[in-house]
Design a protein that fits this description.
This protein has 210 residues and is an all-alpha fold. It has seven helices and no strands. Helix 2 runs antiparallel to helix 3, helix 3 runs antiparallel to helix 4 and helix 5 packs antiparallel against helix 6. The chain is flat and about 50 Å long. The termini are far apart.
Length: 210
């Protein structure tokens, strides 16, 4: 038979234990998590152009998502300002970004032109014209980038860009001639073009093969 003293002891113990349990119920749970790893320091700077593969254009900045002529021209202006202050590293970055913007726009316009060809020729012709315009802007940015690399004494980066311009523009166009002249001044080629007092004759056999 349980005595009255024992009953009072259990009552006192329960009344003391309940507030302690209630206090523990409000404590935040302890999560067994490993320490958060340090995230890599991502940079928005343009990556150096691979001289062995100048056609690979890698988006390197969030600004490149703004696919518009105005965005590309703004980058060109920023590059010109950097060149004026002889900050060639920043100029190269801005020109690379402008080149990527114009190149992506040109590719997208070409795809649209191909998609509407035979369906709506008016739209196809409009998109094809925009593709040519933005390709010209891309080549202009590429030429300026080659000049910046040359100012940095980095001919290994300038030469692939100049060759790409000649292939894109054709050697007989103004920008193509300028690009070839740069190659001549760098000593990469040893024959001037156009030759003084001579005219160029197109190779009809190669033209028919294309």
């Amino acid at each position: 038979m349980i005595s009255a003293i024992t009953v009072r002891f259990f009552r006192h113990t329960c009344l003391t234990f309940l507030p302690v349990m209630a206090a523990f119920s409000f404590l935040p749970p302890v999560n067994a998590q490993s320490p958060t790893p340090n995230l890599p320091n991502t940079s928005n700077q343009a990556q150096p152009l691979d001289p062995n593969n100048p056609n690979v254009l890698r988006p390197t900045s969030q600004n490149n998502t703004l696919l518009s002529t105005a965005a590309g021209q703004r980058l060109m202006t920023e590059a010109s300002n950097a060149v004026a202050s002889q900050n060639y590293t920043l100029a190269a970055q801005k020109l690379q970004e402008a080149r990527e913007v114009f190149n992506q726009m040109s590719n997208f316009y070409q795809e649209l032109a191909a998609s509407f060809s035979g369906i709506d020729n008016r739209i196809a012709d409009s998109q094809r014209k925009k593709a040519l315009e933005t390709a010209q802007m891309r080549d202009d940015a590429t030429y300026q980038l080659a000049l910046v690399h040359r100012a940095q004494n980095r001919s290994e980066l300038a030469v692939p860009l100049l060759v790409q311009i000649i292939r894109s523009q054709n050697p007989t166009r103004d920008l193509g001639k300028k690009a070839y002249q740069q190659l001549f001044e760098l000593g990469f080629v040893d024959t001037p073009f156009p030759r003084t007092g001579s005219t160029t004759t197109p190779n009809t056999s190669q033209s028919n093969q294309r």
